[in-house]
Amino acid sequence: MMRPNSPTAHRITEDGGTTRMLHSEHLFGLANADRLTGPAKARFRELLPPIYLRFDIGGIGVAAVNPSPADTYELAEVGPKALIFPCRGYPGTHPEPLIDLVAWNPRTGELYRRLGIADLLGGWHVMPPASDVVKVYSDPASWARAGGDGVVVLDWGRVHFALGHVRKLVADDVALGRRLRDAMTPPAPRLPRILVETSKHEVAA
Fold this sequence. Notes:
By secondary structure, this protein is α+β, with helices and mostly antiparallel strands. 29% of the residues lie in helices and 23% in strands.
């Protein structure tokens, strides 16, 4: 999630070039998915049954991507194919502009963001008035198969900010639950040693 009313979201909305770029690349991915044939199409549909394009969550595309060390990506002429998921403030075909695009490599499980600003996929579930219970999925395919009913964490460094206000999180497997627990637990504070100055020497408080 990146909050749709945040300054960053407003900058994206006002920057027509960025918005057009996201929409153009999303449509490019959808067209690629529509042209899949043979084993590639079968693998795609196996990952995302029964509606493999999932237009109810905005449409899922396919594209070759070139990932960067900053966990962002650019489109590539050749390279590993990734599934491309739209990241919006609200689901489906709502006129809310795209916030980001998410590329997921089903072979490696790696996630990349086009702009690197979205914290969650499905972030509308934690926007006010947020549900008391939010499902958290291990990967975008699991999230899509559930019709986008929940979220996928995209930025683990900001998970406390993104999900800390939700009363209950329901993870789809044990490993994810443990990772959420660890990410949501703040580190123990480092306390300084406290001394009291006396006329002759210092003693511990």
